[in-house]
Amino acid sequence: MKRFILIVVLAALVAGAWTFSRTGLHRIYLPTATGITAKQVCSLHFVSGLAPERARALYIDPLLGDAGRFVSMSVGDGEVRSSIFGLYGQRAAFREGLGCTLVHDADAFDPDLALPRESEFAPMPLDAAHRDAAFDVAALDAAIDAAFAEPEGGGRNTLAVVVLHDGRLVAERYADGITSATPLHGWSMTKSLAATLAGAMVQRGEIALDAPAITDEAALEETPEKADITLEHLLRMTAGLDITEDNDGTDPNSDMLFTEGDMATWAARRERLFAPGEHWEYMSGQTVLATARMQEEIEGGLIDDLAGVRDRVFEPLDMGSAIFETDQAGNLQGSSYMYAAAQDWARMGQLYLDDGLAPDGTRILPADWDEIVATPTDGSNAAYGLGFWLGHPRDEALDTGYYMSGFQGQFGYVLPEQNLVVVRMGATNFTSDGGYDLASAVAAALRPAPAPEPETPPVEEAPGPEVPEDGSPQ
C-alpha cells in the first residue's frame, strides 16, 4: 500500500499537481509546504532554541497532515532545507539578530548581514507579595493549570503563560524545555508591534497615519487610485487590496509568506478590489505594506531599519529577547515574524497600560495612542482596531480590553480596567487554545479592591464669646 501511495504521489508531481489534499490545512500548495517547513524549523531552532524534530512535530506536522510524510528536511550550519522528493526545494538561512529568512535567490541574499544584540533578556522578578495581596492565589493557579491542561485528543500545547498586574510579574509558567528567556513566535501578534512602531514614529514626528502608503511606482502606474491608501488604512485592514487570507494552504497570504522574496512589492501590486476605507477584511499583506512604508522613513539600509525598531520600541521597553525577521528583499515582516520571550510580549502590552511611557518615564507613544488602537474599525463588527483585536462580547471582564492575537493560539490581553496583561503562547492546532478562558479566569481571580474609607466630615467648632476690639473682658 505504501508503495502504491508513493507511486501515485510521484506520478502527480511529474504530472504537475501543485497541491496536496488531506492536510491539516485541507490542502496546501507544494512550495508552501516546503517553505513553511524550512522557514519555521529554522526560526524555531536557531532563534527559539527548540530541537528541529520537536519544532516540526509541534508547529508543522499537524498543519501538513498526510502531506508531512513526503516533506523532508535537513538542518545544516545556520540553515534548514526542505523538499518533496528533491522537488520544490526551499532553504531558510539564519543571521544573528535578523533571525531566519527564506532564500529564493542566493545571488540576492547577503548571508553576512548581522545585528548583534545591544542588551540581553532581563527577566522580571516575581512579586509574590503583590500577588498574594491582589489575587486569590488558588484561583490564579487554577486558571494557569487549566491553560496547560490538554483536552481530549491533545493539540493545545501551551508553552508559556505570563501575568502582569500593576506592572508587576505575578505569575508565569512554562512547558518543558521553555524558559522565561525563550523567544517564542507571535505570528500575527506581530501586527500589534507594527501598530506600536507606528505610534512611536508618530510620536517622533516621523510619519502620520494619513501618510500615503503605496509608493511602488509600478503599482501606482497600473492603478493610480492606490495613491489614496494611507498608513492607517493598512493598519486597520481597510486598504481594499486582494490579499485574501483564509489559512487553507493555497490562499494568496500563504503564497506571500512562503514563496515570495519581496512581500511588500508583491502585495502592493495586487488588484484593488475596494476603495480605501470601504471594506474591512483581515489580510496580513496590508501590515507588510505598512511596515515597509515605515521603513522608508528610517534612514539607511536593513541593519539601520532593524536598529531603528530596537531604538524606538525594544530598547526602551527592555525587550532584549525580541527578534524581528525580514523577507529576502529586506522588508520587515510586520504581519507575522516577530519572536520574543513571553515576558517581553507582556512588556509591550504593559506599555499601553502605562499611557505609552517606558519604564524610565520616556514617552514612546502619543498620549492617546491606546484610544486609537482600541477604536473599532468600520466594517469589522467592532472586533478590530488598529493592529489589535478588541474585547470579547460574551465576557464582561474582557469586553473593555484589547489584545494581540496570532496563529496557533498566541494571545496577549491588555485589560485596562483590571490593570492586567495576560500572555499565552503555544503551538495549538485544531482545538481550543483556552486563551479567552485564561484571561477571563485571571481577571476573576483578582480580589475586590478595598472600599475607600468614608470621609469624616470636619467638626465645626462652637463660636466662642465675643471679644471687644480693645481686648478687655466684658
UniProtKB/TrEMBL annotation:
Region span, Disordered: 446-474
GO MF, one annotated term: hydrolase activity
Lineage top rank: taxon: Bacteria
InterPro entries in alphabetical order: Beta-lactam-related, Beta-lactam/transpept-like, Diverse_Enzym_Activities
Sequence ranges assigned to domain Beta-lactamase-related in this UniProt record: 150-437
Keywords: Hydrolase
The protein's name: Serine hydrolase
